[in-house]
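[audit] Reproducing an earlier prediction to check determinism. Same input, same settings, fresh worker. If the tokens differ from the archived copy the diff job will pick it up downstream; this log only records the rerun itself.
[audit] input (205 residues):
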Amino acid sequence: MRSVIMKVALVVAMALGVSLSALPTASATAVAACPDGVCSSKYLNYSGQKQINGYYCGPAATRVALSVRLITVPTQDSLAYSLGTTVNGTDHIGLVTTVLRNYVGGWYESKWIGGSYAAQWQIDLLVADVRLNINNAFPIVANVVGTATDTNGGSHSYSGGHYLTVVGYEQGGNISVIYDPAQGVQYRMETRSLAHWIAGRGYSA
């Protein structure tokens, strides 16, 4: 249902020549957190934990997302079992979505960005998803591949693919605040750049 609503909003926004990221969310939680319905920035409290081996980025990123909503957070090993993670990693974002839904209910959906680059409508949708999810305390787990640059000019490269978690935003969602379990660090990235980084993969939102 959320996908249908977002797609309708996107069509309306395109017809009006307005970026979807400029539209206010209709969430009661978002309105409570942001009196005008649109936060310029928002950050979630989470429990970050560096992945315990080279192929546990999926479990580690999923754990970060769950830490926002659960008092007792599952271990990376437990999540790896649920995700079917092997030495080759976690196969696809759909597995993450299923596990998130099992723990916190039906909010999460898998969103796919095909091709080598994100189209403008996919960038707009990701900006809107970042705002909607963070306003409602549901971090986004993203499956990325290749190289991207953060707002400080730092380069992050994962040729074989990687999972990370969006835990906040700035500039109305145009900047994503990311927790990266590979180094156990937080950094900021233009959401446009994040969308291109996800291209060929997908995200849970």
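[audit] rerun output stored. Observation attached for the diff report: Residues 4-32 have pLDDT under 50 and may be disordered.
[audit] end
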